[in-house]
Amino acid sequence: MATSIKPAETVAIPYFWEEACKHLMKKDRVMKRLIPQFGDACLQTRGDAFVTLARSIVGQQISVKSAQTVWDRFALLPRKMTPANVLKLKVDDMRAAGLSVRKVEYLVDLALHFDNGALHVKDWDGMGDEEIIAELVAIRGIGRWTAEMFLIFHLMRPNVLPLDDDGLIQGISKNYFSDDVVSRSDAREVAAAWAPYCSVATWYIWRSLDPLPVAY
Q: Taking every annotated instance into account, which residue ranges of this chain make up the domain HhH-GPD (predicted)?
């Protein structure tokens, strides 16, 4: 689920952003045009791994507005949104907040993975992107796309290329192929010039479709 991020929620800005922008503007004609349009705006994080993933589960297959409504109701249930507190919640109360049976199961599984140490959270900084994705997709309700959004928006990894993201494909079509249909292979070829800052280029491609920055 993507939602507008408020300044008060901002806790970090990527250390590599300025260098990435210089690199992209030098290497790519579209980036040279796009990047200056958005001034100082850049990728930002909410700063809480569990909350980021929980929000992504709540927002699956429903509109952004509906997802925010359900999240707001759900977030009132625990005293603080932590894995241990979520595990103490009653299923009926979670369902009453607007969560489906399946999403309740997903949130419980997510909380269990955090609570029982199945996730190597403290080691993530030193782990590769694919290693982290493998850990996350073992959680029910989390697929590769969600894991890649987590790498970009929470861990702020600089070189993630989410080829399953409709917005990225649509944006590449719009900016590089005059709105012609784009394949994953086409997208990968375009992104070859973006490395090692594919996450940053993806963020600007998203902004070309929706100027309002989002957070997960």
A: 58-210
Q: What is the pTM of this model?
A: 0.85
**Looking at residue 61, what is its pLDDT?**
84
1: nearest Cα among 145, 129, 113, 112: 145
Residues of the domain holding 181? 8-41+160-215
Q: How confident is the model at residue 210 (pLDDT cuts 50, 70, 90)?
A: confident
149-to-140, 170, 172 alpha-carbon distances in Å: 16, 17, 18
Backbone angles phi, psi at 124, to 5 degrees: -55, -35
Per-residue pLDDT tens digits for 103-129: 999 999 999 999 999 999 999 999 999
Q: Kindly give, in sequence order, each residue whose CB lies less than 8 Å from that of residue 90, ignoring residues fewer than 6 positions away.
A: none
- Nearest-5° angle of CA 204, CA 205, CA 210? 90
Three-class DSSP category at 4: strand
Query: Partners of 215 in the beta sheet?
Result: 3
Contacts 24+ apart (CB under 8 A), 209-212: 209/167, 209/170, 209/171, 209/174, 210/167, 211/38, 212/4
The whole-number average pLDDT for the span 170-197 is 96
Q: Which helix (H) or strand (E) holds 189?
A: helix 184-191
Q: Are residues 26 and 75 in the same domain?
A: no
